[in-house]
Amino acid sequence: MSDLEVAEASGMDLETVRRLESLAGQLPSSDDVARYRSACGAS
Question: Are 17 and 42 within 8 A, CB to CB?
């Protein structure tokens, strides 16, 4: 799944998805992590 596909499926912007995947900068919120996991099909 591409960054763009994850962003669209999760409702997050592309920058947020890329930050989550790079683990750089500010730590993501638990809500963002949950949305990311859900968009990727993880439970």
Answer: no
How many separate domains does the chain show?
A: 1
Write out pLDDT tens, residues 13-33.
999 999 999 988 888 899 999
- 3 neighbors 21 (Cβ within 8 angstroms): yes
- Determine the structural domain holding residue 18 and report its residue range: 3-39
DSSP assignment of 1-43, as one string? --HHHHHHHHT--HHHHHHHHHT-SSPPPHHHHHHHHHHTT--
Q: What is the pTM of this model?
A: 0.78
User: In the predicted model, is pLDDT for residue 5 greater than 80?
Assistant: yes
